[in-house]
């Protein structure tokens, strides 16, 4: 997001904990060159307040989160304090910063109460979430709605939330996520261990929701911004709802060189929602947003990036080229 915003000419301040993995995308692409980077914790209200007061942002794009379902089972309190109270802290700071005109809070498709239904979820469906991560994102949605109704609407600040599906792409090294786990295994020339190969997820390349967030952010800063406040789904196309087994087959085929996977453990050990599709009609009609990549292209772009990492390529250039190719393919942002 920082590289893309920089390419569009934005002045960016970032506020985050130190990069949580080694290696990490932030360092590998030299994002510090584009961002006034503040290392801090969104649970630390004075530090957050000082950073926002210094940056005086026109728009805040809130992505900081404890973002992993499995980690949320191990440490629910960190998940809730970060995802719920961290969001409340940011909104409270933002309402005291007169420069803020718009706020976009990134939650998740998992914010919805999962009724394991065959129909896709729409923005007005009930919030819920079975596991602590999903539930914390449903809670964050409710916190945003309360701040919008209590403060921001009256102040003329447009506040939206964005719900995307399972995001994949180059440079993600997060533990206990399918694609990073696959890339680590293939780089180390060992088979990938899979817990639940039949689970169906909505896979999408990271540039797809980012494009949606940029289109939405522009509207939140434009005329009639209030019409764009509220929840927005940015889900992948229907061909992207694929079982884990198909995605790892595609990853292994793209990687080549005998890359393979095997099923381990009892998939019934942990509850993870089995089916959840997003209906993105609203983003399509009102923002002109539509996903452009099939899941196979998303997989290929991701493998290309990790192959470039293995080859010691200039990853800033590789990432910028992927962003530029996306912008040329789908030029509405520029
Ligand atoms: N990756 C996905 O598939 C996916 C899908 C839907 C929604 N999301 C949401 O999108 C957002 C970005 O996801 P991601 O995959 O880039 O996550 P990520 O885990 O890679 O990045 C999260 C960032 O938040 C920062 N962070 C965590 N706790 C913090 C704290 N207490 N204070 C300050 N910074 C903190 C981390 O340092 C990291 O930079 C998250 O809100 C996530 O829940 C992700």
Automatic annotation (TrEMBL):
Q: Where is the NAD(P)-binding domain?
A: 35-208
Q: Gene3D superfamilies, alphabetically?
A: NAD(P)-binding Rossmann-like Domain, UDP-galactose 4-epimerase, domain 1
Looking up Pfam families in the UniProt record yields:
GDP_Man_Dehyd
Q: Which NCBIfam families does this one have?
A: CDP_4_6_dhtase (TIGR02622)
Task: Report the protein name in the record.
Answer: CDP-glucose 4,6-dehydratase
Q: Which organism is it from?
A: Nitrospirillum amazonense
Lineage, broadest ranks:
Bacteria, Pseudomonadati, Pseudomonadota, Alphaproteobacteria, Rhodospirillales
């Amino acid at each position: 997001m920082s590289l893309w915003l920089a390419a569009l000419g934005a002045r960016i301040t970032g506020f985050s904990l130190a990069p949580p993995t080694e290696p990490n995308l932030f360092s590998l692409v030299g994002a510090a060159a584009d961002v006034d980077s503040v290392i801090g914790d969104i649970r630390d209200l004075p530090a957050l307040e000082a950073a926002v007061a210094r940056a005086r942002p026109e728009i805040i794009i809130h992505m900081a989160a404890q973002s992993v379902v499995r980690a949320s089972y191990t440490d629910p309190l960190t998940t809730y304090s970060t995802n719920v109270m961290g969001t409340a802290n940011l909104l409270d700071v933002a309402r005291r910063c007169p420069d803020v005109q718009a706020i976009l809070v990134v939650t998740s498709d998992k914010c919805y109460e999962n009724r394991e239904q065959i129909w896709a979820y729409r923005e007005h469906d009930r919030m819920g979430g079975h596991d602590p991560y999903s539930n914390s994102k449903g809670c964050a949605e409710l916190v945003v709605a309360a701040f919008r109704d209590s403060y921001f609407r009256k102040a003329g600040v447009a506040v939206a939330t964005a719900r995307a599906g399972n995001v994949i792409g180059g440079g993600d090294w997060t533990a206990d996520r399918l694609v990073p786990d696959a890339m680590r295994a293939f780089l180390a020339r060992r088979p990938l261990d899979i817990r639940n190969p039949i689970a169906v997820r909505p896979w999408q390349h990271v540039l797809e929701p980012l494009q949606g967030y940029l289109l939405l952010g522009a509207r939140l800063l434009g005329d009639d911004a209030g019409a764009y406040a509220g929840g927005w789904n940015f889900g992948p196309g229907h061909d992207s709802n694929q079982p884990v087994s198909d995605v790892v087959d595609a990853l292994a085929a793209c990687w080549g060189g005998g890359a393979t996977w095997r099923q381990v453990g009892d998939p019934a050990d942990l509850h993870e929602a089995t089916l959840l599709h997003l209906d993105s009609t609203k983003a399509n009609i009102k923002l002109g947003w539509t996903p452009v990549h099939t899941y196979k292209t998303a997989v290929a772009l991701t493998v290309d990036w990790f192959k470039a990492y293995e080859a010691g390529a200039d990853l800033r250039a590789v990432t910028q080229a992927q962003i530029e190719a996306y912008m040329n393919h789908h030029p509405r942002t520029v």
